[in-house]
Amino acid sequence: MSDDTIRLVTIGRMFRRRRRILAILTLLGALAGYGTSVLLPPRYTATTSVLLPGQWEQRELLTQAEIASSSTVVDRAAATLRWSGVSASELHGQVSAAATDGNIIKVSGTADSPERAQRLSDQVAQQFVSFAAQIAGSSTESDTSAGPEALRQQVEQTNRSISDLAGAADPGRTVESVQARTELEKLRTALQDAMKKLDEADPVTNKGGMVVMGPAARPTGEAPPTRTQLIAAGALLFLLAGVVGHLVAARANRRPRTEAEIAAALGSAVLGTVDVPVERHAPRTEGRGARARFRRLLGVDTRWDVPAARTSGDEAGRRIRYRRVCARLRDQLPPPRRLLVVVADGDDIARRAAAQLAAEADRSPAPSSSSKGYPVLRVVEVSASRPTVPDRGAESGVLVVLSAGSRTAAELAGIAEACADGGHDVVGVVVAGAVRARPARPAGTPEQDATAALAGHAHASGGPV
Hints:
This protein has 16 helices and 10 strands. It has helices at 8-17, 19-39, 58-68, 71-81, 88-92, 114-141, 148-168, 175-200, 203-206, 227-252, 259-266, 289-298, 315-332, 348-362, 409-421, 446-456; strands at 44-51, 95-100, 104-111, 211-212, 270-278, 310-311, 338-344, 376-382, 397-403, 426-436. The radius of gyration is 46 Å and the shape is rod-shaped. 27% of the residues are buried. The chain crosses the membrane at residues 230-249. Belongs to the CpsC/CapA family.
C-alpha cells in the first residue's frame, strides 16, 4: 500500500479488519471527553440588546461594540455586582459585544449559572449605556463656545443687528433704501434656515439616548461546548487519530511485495508462487506470551492493508503449482536432492505452504514417470528477528518460503545471512499467497496431508546466535 492511492475501499477494509481497536479508541476518546466535561464546569450565556437610535456608520457601530466590552464598562459592572470569588479580570473574559444589523449592539455575559449570566449581561448593558452617555455629555461641555448653543446666541445678536439696520434705513424714500431693506430680510431668512438645519443635524440630539431593549432572557441550556459535544468531539478525535495512524503506518510500510523485490532481498530467484486456501474466519496463528494475547484481544494480530484473498481454483489446480515447484527443484539440483525449507516464525501462510510442498515431494511418482526424483524437503522455522539455520549436513541448499509483504527487506537479508553462516546456498524462493477456499471439500484434502507431513518432519526452533 506504500505506493498506492488511499481509496474508500482501503478505508472500508480498515474498518472491517480493525473494527475492534477502532471501537476501543472511540470509547477511550468518549471517556476523555467526559473527563474533560467533568473538569470544566457548565457555562451559560445570556444576551442583552442595546439600540442606538439615529444614523450610524459601520465603523462607529464597531467602536461602540468595543466600548461595550471595554475594561472600564466591565470594571463598573463588577463593582456593582460584587460577586465573591470573582474578580474584574475574570469577568473580562466572560463579556463580549458585537454589532448587528439595525444599529443594535448585542452584549453577552457568560457565568456558571443562568441567573448570574442574566445579571451579568444586563449590568454590562446598563453600564455601557451610562458610560456612552457620559462620553457624549463631556464632549459637548468641553467646547461650549463652538457648540450649537453659542451659535444660536450669535444668530440672535445678528438678527437684532439686522433689525437695527433696517430701522435706521430711510423707509422707502429711495430705491437704495428699499434694496437694502430687502437684502437684510433675505439675510435674516437665510440665518433662520441655517439654524433649523443645524438643529436637525445635531449629532448629540440624533445619536444620544441609547436604549436597553429589555432584560436578557434567562438561558435554558449550557453554552458550547456542552458535555455531549465534548464526548462526541473526543470520540471523533480518537477515531480519526486511529485511522490516520493506520494509514501512516501502512504508507510507511516498505516490506517487499513483488517477486523481484523478494528475490533481490534474498539474493536468489523466485521458483514460483503457490496458493494456500484459508477460511474467511480462519483461526489466527497462536502466539505466546502476554503481548500476543493482548494483540489478539485488540484484533491487531492480523494485517489489514493486504487486499482481500481472491477465490481459489480447484484442488487440482493448486496441486499443479506445488508439483511444478518440485519439478524445478529436481531439474536444478544434482543428486542427492535434499533441501532445507526455511520459514519465518509467525508466517502461518508460508508455514502451511511449506508443509504442503513437503507433502507433494513425499508423494514419490512412479518409476516410469518423468517426474521421478523429487527432492526430499525438511521444514524448519527460524526467528525473523535473529534467525539461526542448522548447519549444513546432507542438504544441497535452502529453499525459502514466505508470503508476500510479511517481512521487511532487512529481515529477509538476515535470513539469507543466517543461511550463509550455516554453509547453505539459497537455491530459490517460493512465494505463498492466501486464497479463499471453496465451501465444500472432498475427503483427504491436501491440507490434511500437509499437516501430517509437517508433523513428520524435523523442526528447528529459531533462537539467538
